[in-house]
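SEVERITY: medium
COMPONENT: batch folding queue
REPORTER: lab tech (J.R.)

DESCRIPTION
The queue accepted two submissions in a row. Attaching both inputs and their returned structure tokens so the on-call engineer can compare them side by side.

ATTACHMENT 1
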Amino acid sequence: MAKARGWVMVGPGKLELQEFEIPKVAEDAALMKIEACGICGTDKHAFHGFMKNAPFPMIMGHEFIGTIVEIGKTANEKMAVLGGGPLKEGDRLAIAPSSLPCGRCWYCLHMPHRPSFCTSRTIYGINSTKNPPSIWGGFAEYIYLHSKTWAFKIPPKMSTERAVQTEPMATGLRAVERAFNPGEAFMGEGYGAGKTVMVLGAGPIGLMVIAALRATGASLILAQDLLKSRLEMAKRLGADSVVDGKVPFEDRLKQVQALTDGVGPDVVIEAAGAPPAFQDALAFVRRGGKLIEVGHFTDPGVTEIHPFTICFKDLDIHGSWAYPPIMFKDALAVLARSPLPLDEVVTHSFPLSELPKALEKVGTEGAGKIVIKP
């Protein structure tokens, strides 16, 4: 029987390149050959032990694209397939990591519009290899697609570099969507065309947020980061002004207020995933403004806040936890049509054998999106 290699995170800080038997494809499933898989900050945080209740051992990697090499007879009747026509061998796909919701748990019954809350959902890249057939993550040569998969056909001729950013773009779009509601933009509440926005963290997710803001009509986009290369990329993707996170805070605050009528941005989106950045966000956002927290999908620790600030500023604070899988449709549309140099966000590609080296590169100077190409 044929084998597939995959990197197994057996525990925090422990990776093993293992081989798995490629299973016979069930009638309601499919097998996909991985073309590329991006490394998310979540992957690195999990590697360092910041993901609570991680289902070790597991093959991580949830930002993957690939090509169908085998498909069961009833797969098209079970999976959510978008992008035109039924699935067939040779189709190039972006796969939303979360499964179709169960429809039975409390959240599915009471909040069906929030499918990411489903307590029975499975997630590609965060699924134990103890669950057969084990190949559930993108840091592998092949991935097995179960019957509750969301599959999105990639537009013809889209580059690997754009297509592999479908998941990060969905995350960025969701963060911006959270800024819209509740609120009436024309009354100075919430986000809308003409608003000022600051993005803390210009890593791959922050850059997708900036691209989404540019596409939705923000009048002024500010970006803060510690790395010069990321600030330069932020400007290429539409940031109007950048803030060096290494500068003393009071100087940064003066810079931001000088650009926002002395009051601060209408919206601040925290995408750095560093607890101290949340302190900055509270200080930067104007009174009556909105703060979106999208950077902390894992738990890297705590930071001190003053509840008085939230009360005094009369703030709306929203978490942004993943996204409805259908947002992959919007993400692919933005990636296909955006004139921004989104391909350039991918700065490094590594073969599957060099995943440990690639993980070390994530978050360093000069590194944007790091991609594994089996």
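ATTACHMENT 2
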Amino acid sequence: MFKSTAKLLGAISLFFSGVSHSQNVTAFTDWDLQKGANIQSFEQSEVININSGKVYFKGDAMQDGIIEFDLFTGGERAFVYAYFRQQSDAVSESIYLRTHKSNAPDTIQYSPVIQGRSSWQLYHGQKGTASAFLPEQQWMRVKLSFKGDKLNVWVGEDEDPVMQDVTLMNVVASGGVMLRGFIPRASNATYAAKIKNVRITPLEPSPVEKVATKAKNAEFISKIEVSAVFKADKNATTQMPEAVAKGGWKVAKAEADGMFNLLSWRDIPKGVRPWTVATRFVVSSETTQTCELDVGYSDTMTLHLNNSPIVFADASYRYSDNRQEGLLHPEQLKVYLPLQQGDNEVVGYVADSFGGWGVQYRLNNCADVEVKIGT
């Protein structure tokens, strides 16, 4: 929907604004409106009205830039997205606003898009969420600036960004811009957003230092093996499937905080849901001892030690009954590992179907141990 070849556009701005009904809406030709989005006359201006739909910018791709627009929402439960560095619908960076959560800790969410899926359950707090005031049925200005591997977001008239220097997780590359709305089935919203006065300003691309993949905290496991993907349910996986045991394994390296975004390491086969992998590493201990293992996971975790299941936990997102967010963090699950002297194989089966697929392991209170791959 956008030109895939990148051109350096310097400080040129590409702009449209709301116009009166009597004028032709020629400025909107810079945008490709998909099903669920339309041009609408609203408060004496022409605006883009988005329900559950997409709007692609048809201009040149860019690596670094600024995206600004005026946003009007009704305050009902809905989501408004801005995608940038979009290689396709399957790969991009994104932010979105939860229009019903003004002043909540997660009003704004950053997430990389990998395999067409958001990983919002993995990127929260300083990694990806921020609070902002979203007035109902009033116009407000939204601005995002992305340069190198950093993202800043402003909402309203405040000079300071509400989201500052968030680290972007996908590979830095030129790509397209897309706006999107989404209205959940249970929502009373009649529209996700109305948008006008969009300005896109390309910036001079900046060099990016290679981000270290080894976890900064030595206690986190920084390297694991990941099996091929297999279909399971969200109940405990009590034994390793034969196809997984005989299949190939891939070595994965953690992000800086010790987390493994599994979408980056294994493709989800079509028709597989929930998708599951086995992750494994070896703890070699000089003595018989009990070690603490902190586990972050999304959505379910079955942990085996030396071929025996020892714990199962389910953190799947649930909106209504027994509500839980399913956010991954290292304090989700504490396991006491009864280690034998010598090598001990730890296998964690991680299943997911929505919101982010990841795992994080951290050893505590262990003496004279070595973590390694393979036996």
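NOTES FROM REPORTER
The first strand starts at residue 14 and ends at 16.
No errors were logged for either attachment.
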